[in-house]
Design brief:
Length: 277
């Protein structure tokens, strides 16, 4: 029996009938040069970059009212990035940055006294915001406030700042391995560790192809964004081959052999489609 047919039968027996699904890709920016403790980087600017999250808006950079990101047309936005999977949702692992008296033209409170909360969050890891005359080690200043409640805001550039600093620490354990570091084993969160991607030759910074030449997701051997039987059938001429001379591109578990163990890695992902943020 041909290896391709054997593999196909094995997979179908293991998996049964599956409907296509799309894998959710991580939001936020990928980390390439963050510190080992806190990659968070925040600044006030006219608009946030594609890999940043808008936390809240300010009417000016000093003595300002605040607004939620979609609450006004204020031209000054507190933008944060530099952390895997960073979000402004008040869910998962999160902490409140400030509360606002309204969605627009608002005063702020650090004591949680208002109903409109702005947050920083990650799926798993650490998120913590504090307030005081200075930011502690590894905490980043997002803004300054004139007091703990009923307050105006300003930026953190040293000109027209208030004495109360709004300081946050956020770090995501992006592959949920209990270790918080900027190179956390799987920088694109595609389920394949960076060292495995280095072995097979795929792009460890992309969870899915950016173009037809971007070989980004290890199980997507034909680079069509899907992990399916078409990829499995490509194992036919190389199955049961050591690496080298066999191509490392098929050695998905990086054990220097192309065999059924590599094919079995398709079990939890067969008929799934990758996606980038």
């Amino acid at each position: 029996m041909r290896w391709a047919a054997l593999v196909a039968i094995l997979l179908m027996g293991l998996l049964g009938s599956l409907a296509p699904v799309v894998l959710d890709a991580p939001s936020g920016s990928r980390v390439g040069s963050a510190s080992a403790t806190n990659g968070l980087a925040c600044s006030v600017k006219a608009s946030c970059a594609e890999n940043e999250k808008a936390v809240f808006r300010m009417s000016s950079t000093a003595n300002a009212h605040a607004a939620t990101p979609g609450g006004s047309g204020y031209g000054n936005v507190v933008c944060c990035g530099g952390v895997h999977n960073l979000s402004t949702d008040c869910s998962a692992v999160f902490d409140g940055v400030l509360t606002l008296s309204g969605t627009d033209n608002a005063h702020v409170a650090a004591d949680g006294g208002y109903a409109n909360q702005v947050c920083l969050s990650v799926p798993h890891g650490v998120a913590d915001c504090t307030y005081g005359p200075s930011c502690g080690t590894d905490y980043r200043c997002l803004a300054t406030a004139s007091g703990s409640s009923n307050a105006h805001v300003a930026d953190c550039d040293g000109v027209g700042d208030y004495t109360t600093k709004v300081c946050c620490y956020v770090e995501d354990d992006n592959d949920n391995d209990g270790m918080l570091d900027p190179f956390d084993g799987d920088d694109d969160n595609d389920g394949f560790a960076d060292d495995k991607e280095a072995h097979v030759g795929t792009d460890p910074w992309d969870a899915c192809r950016d173009d037809a030449n971007d070989d980004a997701w290890p199980p997507d051997i034909n680079i069509d964004t899907w992990a399916n039987i078409l990829d499995v059938l490509l194992f036919k001429p190389v199955i049961m081959t050591p690496v080298p001379p066999g191509p490392a591109r098929f050695d998905l578990n990086a054990d220097s052999n192309i065999n059924i163990l590599d094919v079995l890695l398709y079990k939890p992902i067969i008929m799934t489609q990758c996606a980038n943020p």
